[in-house]
Write a structure and sequence with these properties.
With about 250 residues, the chain is α/β, with parallel strands linked by helices. Helices cover about 35% and strands about 20% of the residues. The strands form two sheets. A seven-stranded mixed beta sheet has the order 4-3-2-5-6-9-7. Strands 1-8 form a two-stranded antiparallel sheet. Helix 6 packs across helix 7.
Length: about 250
Amino acid sequence: MVRLKKRLGQHLLISPGILQKIAEKAEIKEGDIVVEIGPGTGALTKYLLQYPLKRLYLLEIDPEMIKELRSKFSDERLTIYQADAVSFNYRNLGEGPLKVVGNLPYNVASLIIENVVYYHVLIPQVVVLVQKEVAEKWLTQGSWLSIFIQTFYDLDYIMTIPPRFFHPPPKVDSSLIKLSLHVKTSLADLAKYKNFLTHLFQHKRKMLRKKFPAELLEKSQIDGHLRVEALSLGEILRLYEHFIDWLEPQVK
């Protein structure tokens, strides 16, 4: 039996019914290329391989888990990477589009999804398990990360999964969610967009006029007395567009 490591946030999903549900929600068609994040001992992997996918890439950071996976599977469609999904470059796979699935470690789930967003042009669909509280935050527009995700993906809350379906049982509920790409953005610099969003959501109780010049807000047709949570996604994108135009002369 592989020793689970608390520092890696390892909680193995052990319910056959839910594992089957995740595989179904991935909607794997013939010829699909799938990436599973954090396969652990391969419980979900087994179900994914039942579908006529072209290739299944496993991203696993724990060398003990990789040894376990290699002892269990010999399917020629399967490739295992010892890699950290927080910083993995999906272009290194050399093909796409990709469907991403997985039971994400609670402690780095947000960082993993942030990284996925950077590669959204390659990843039209994501089906993952995350902490319920985190999923609910992403479904709102109350944080920079929720806006970063929703700029490119529609989010669908599929189901809540209690701790008893995991080993060891976590102290909180989990949620299965689906991200579906709705736009391939024309945003040229996603790192710059992220920095804008983090600035926008700092000190959320501050009015926008205390964060941005009046001329910028006026050009964006946004009331400076509003706070960030009152803005729609469309207004945020409009503000960003004018912010970039305003910023260029400032840095010359």
